[in-house]
């Protein structure tokens, strides 16, 4: 509530203006600018060093605008993770004639595209680097990015295997994704010299599909 010293009329006007501001629709362009700024700030300063003031300055908006879109630093960080790591899961629609085998290959390929994205790799490295000192950072990364991808894949698995329980499809989805990334993702995260990563990932996708497909059919 904004207090105004010019009497009852101005006081009431201030209340009305404040109420109007709080109910004004949020600007999607500002939201995107804030998320892009948050990514730069969190990756350059770490979770602990980043502040809402830094994000607001980077985005070119006021701090209260950041709070209107995201109520806290944790909420902003989680939304940023979703946008960078899970919000753009590049799984193109498949034709109606596609088989379960086709969809599993598509899911594996989409996951590789996701985890090898430079922004994703940078965020992953930051989460691991900060995990011991700031466990909240690691928890938000795990819940806001990793588990969203697992849930997406588990949902597709459940559509093909309704006889499996939620726990079973989530466990199977986690195993599938772990097999797809294999040791190749770790080598990329460590910045090891370039190799024909595509060949390695293709072999890992094939192994993951061979492992999961019969379990979804049984």
TrEMBL record:
Residues 28-88 form the HTH tetR-type domain. InterPro entries: Homeodomain-like_sf, HTH-type_TetR-like_transc_reg, HTH_TetR, Tet_transcr_reg_TetR-rel_C_sf, TetR_C_Proteobacteria. Residues 51-70 bind DNA. One of its GO terms (molecular function) is transcription cis-regulatory region binding. Keywords: DNA-binding, Transcription, Transcription regulation. The keyword Magnesium does not apply. PANTHER family: HTH-TYPE TRANSCRIPTIONAL DUAL REGULATOR CECR (PTHR30055:SF146), HTH-TYPE TRANSCRIPTIONAL REGULATOR RUTR (PTHR30055). This is Transcriptional regulator, TetR family. It comes from Caenispirillum bisanense.
């Amino acid at each position: 509530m904004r207090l105004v010293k010019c009497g009852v009329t101005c006081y009431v006007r201030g209340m009305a203006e404040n109420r109007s501001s709080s109910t004004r629709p949020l600007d999607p362009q500002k939201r995107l600018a804030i998320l892009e700024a948050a990514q730069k700030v969190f990756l350059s300063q770490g979770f602990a060093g980043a502040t809402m003031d830094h994000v607001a300055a980077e985005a070119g908006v006021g701090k209260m605008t950041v709070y209107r879109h995201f109520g806290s630093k944790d909420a902003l960080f989680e939304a940023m993770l979703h946008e960078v790591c899970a919000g753009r899961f590049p799984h193109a629609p498949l034709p109606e004639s596609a088989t379960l085998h086709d969809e599993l290959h598509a899911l594996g390929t989409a996951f590789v595209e996701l985890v090898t994205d430079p922004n994703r790799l940078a965020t992953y490295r930051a989460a691991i680097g900060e995990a011991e000192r700031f466990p909240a950072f690691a928890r938000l990364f795990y819940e806001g990015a990793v588990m969203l991808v697992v849930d997406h894949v588990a949902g597709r698995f459940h559509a093909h295997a309704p006889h499996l329980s939620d726990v079973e499809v989530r466990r199977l989805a986690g195993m599938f994704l772990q097999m797809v990334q294999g040791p190749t993702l770790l080598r990329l995260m460590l910045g090891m010299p370039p190799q024909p990563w595509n060949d390695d990932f293709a072999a890992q996708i094939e192994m993951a599909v061979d492992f999961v497909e019969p379990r979804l059919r049984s």
